[in-house]
Amino acid sequence: MKVKDGVSLFGLKIEMRIVLKEADRIWKSYGHELVVTSTTDGVHSAGSYHPYGYAVDLRTNYFGELEVDAVAQELRNILSFFYDVVVESTHIHVEYDYNRANS
To answer: 20 to 30 A from 72, CA-CA: which of 28, 58, 91, 103?
Structure first.
């Protein structure tokens, strides 16, 4: 696993460890190295879980469209109901929905 320059894993909540572990395994199974492109860094939309350490963005530019969907589905199948896996144009966004888990 690589972390993009300027991105830090500092501040990520423990709930995100399984995401990184499983994503790393899945990316390797497709012949690619996982690159984390955003965690608590940067500017995100209102309501984002990034600043709180409950979200990561994972690079996908080396996957074809069908592969991205398959990778995202594998993550969904592994992670619990409390995680959202969203395919974006340049990455897969994964967040632990703290509010759902604690309601």
So the answer is: 103
Angle at 60 between CA 56 and CA 66, to 5 degrees: 125
Residue 2: both structure tokens together: 């690589």
pLDDT per residue as tens digits for the range 37-61: 999 987 777 788 999 999 999 999 9
The residues near 52 (Cβ < 8 Å, ≥ 6 apart) are 13, 40, 98
φ, ψ at 37 (rounded to 5°): -100, -15
Domain count, the chain: 1
Can you give the pTM of this predicted structure? 0.92
- H or E segment and range at residue 38: strand 35-38
Query: What would the pLDDT profile of 10-25 be if each residue is shown by its tens digit?
Result: 999 999 999 999 999 9
Supply 71's token pair.
């990778």
CA proximity to 35, closest of 15, 9, 13: 9
β-pairing verdict for 91-96 and 83-87: antiparallel
